[in-house]
Amino acid sequence: MRANRSIRSRAAHQRGISFIGLLFVAVVVGGLGVVIAQVIPTLIEWQAIDKAANKAKEGSTVPEVRAIFDRAQAIDDFKSVTGKDLDIRKVGDKVVVSYAYEREIPLFGPAYLTLKYKGETR
């Protein structure tokens, strides 16, 4: 008898998540998942742009750097930055290529997530 009472009293004090709480958590996690799924392709694109800029720094003149970047752009198929958008300068004897751009991801209604990317070759 005494064992039954102990089990019943422990069961009465157990807490858990309610169905409404579970729905709320599912909606929040689902919303974050949708946003993350839209951000990942922009990160992959940024990596391709950074790789193209690092290739382009091998050029010695501004038109040559732009041409190398545009060839890499055609191969990796990104559209956010072109050779004309690059800021090219010489620091000492090295060519430094930098870029900056923004991407907007529509969330809902008038709300957008704006991602600002910028980079510079080393």
Topology diagram in text:
Layout: H1 2-13, H2 19-56, H3 62-76, E1 87-91, E2 94-108, E3 111-120
Antiparallel strand pairs: 1-2, 2-3
How many E strands? Answer: 3
Shape label: elongated
- The structural class is alpha+beta
Distance between the termini: 76 Å
Which strands sit side by side, in order, in the main sheet? 1-2-3
Low-pLDDT segments, ≥5 res: none
Give, in order, the helices and strands.
HHHEEE
The biggest sheet amounts to: 3 strands, antiparallel
The value of Rg in angstroms is 26 Å
How large is the count of helical segments? 3
- Percentage of residues in helical conformation: 40-55%
- How many structural domains? 1
Protein name: Membrane protein
Keywords: Membrane, Transmembrane, Transmembrane helix
Transmembrane segments: 20-40
Q: What features would you describe in this structure?
A:
The chain has one domain. 53% of the residues lie in helices and 25% in strands. The chain has 3 helices and 3 strands. Strands 1-2-3 form a 3-stranded antiparallel beta sheet, with helices on one face. A hairpin with a 2-residue loop joins strand 2 and strand 3. The mean pLDDT is 90. The chain is an alpha+beta fold.
